[in-house]
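Dig into what follows:
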Amino acid sequence: MCRMLTLCAMLWAVSAAGAAESVRPLALHPQNPHYLLFRGKPAVLVTSGEHYGAVLNRDFDYRRYLDELQRHGLNLTRTFSGTYREVASSFNIVENTLAPVAPERYVCPWARSNTPGAGDGGNKFDLARWNPEYFHRLKDFLTEAGKRGIVVELVLFCVIYDDALWKVNPMNAANNVQGVGKVSRKEVYRLKEPALQEVQEAFVRKVVAELKGFDNLYYELCNEPYFNGPERPWNERILRVIAEAEADLPARHLVAQNIANRSARIVDPLPGVSIFNFHYASPPEAVPLNYHLNKVLADDETGFKGKGDFWYRREGWEFLLSGGAIYSNLDYSFTASRPDGTFVVTTSPGGGGVALRKQLAVLKRFIESFDFIHMRPARGEVEVASGTARALVQEGRQYAVYVHGGTHAELTINLPAGRYRAQWIDTRSGNARHTESFEHTGGKRKLLSPPYVEDIALAVRRIP
């Protein structure tokens, strides 16, 4: 009997260890930390997602939204935690999911009190009490995303861009019964008020404790901190809180930091940050400037290039083919009234829609068709006669190339001797436009594309 009990205990321990291993969170890939490891497989994250209000907006049906991402094979969504919200007039966004239409439609992490007088017309918030509905909704969102193989980037905080946003924010002293937040909107993340800092850190501890068991998650410290947002001491404090809250985990969740719009060279990176986020990163100068850091680089938000698909398709292809690992397009076709992404984008500051999601799915499949963990950005191996080319290479084995501009591409690739197969791919449909196999004696090889409009991709692989 003792031996049987011992055997059962051993089997339970093995089973428990296997379960713990199976829920290890998204991580940097151990062979190439420019990329990710998710559920045991190398990963790039590509999406065309809603404007970050999926959890905090009670009217948003996130299951229908996640179904639409899954339908196209997209595997990321970015959402704000609820410590920040917007109003109907914010940024000229039509049916903004970050702007709930009424106070009772805003699902905030903190509970409302019985005291009237909040800036949004509802009762003031009680920063000492959590809102159970919020945490149920947050965890259900993570659960439903995980079922569909979708990773969630949870943005903990966001800068307060203008006075209208500060007027409705729970951390404003006028909006909570504690009277915490006696600072200007530009000082919310500057360690100016100990009581406010305590509220922020308690929120982070609570969220991290609630989400410990999810593998499809990483955190971003603060959205667009370069607009009067947090400085290094505040970031260090929040990073420490996350680390302490996850100290008992076998593997911690990755943390991202939003660095700049477009590009910047990262100097003295914060220890504990594994993903560096850039917005509107086209052309993708942020990648070559920071590739030496051996961390994941992300194009985390797009927009301000009109409604056409090409600009956002090109931005994604250029960023990933330059060595980035995450492309998160901001898709304004997702609204509370159309959570399936069928809203027709009008005056919002960007694009989106079913056609673009299909095109970004082509990009994701193209990258995943390569053994990309063993590839690096090209260093002169690929030249283009006209237009612009971006390429990932594994010398002598595989070459992924993207070209935009012109109508015919004339590429020169420096190849070792061997037999190769080259295939030109339509970036809209994913269909092969032209395929050829050839013997090569070594050195430069010229490859001519079929005619195209706007852009085209090329895959060259050595034939064993």
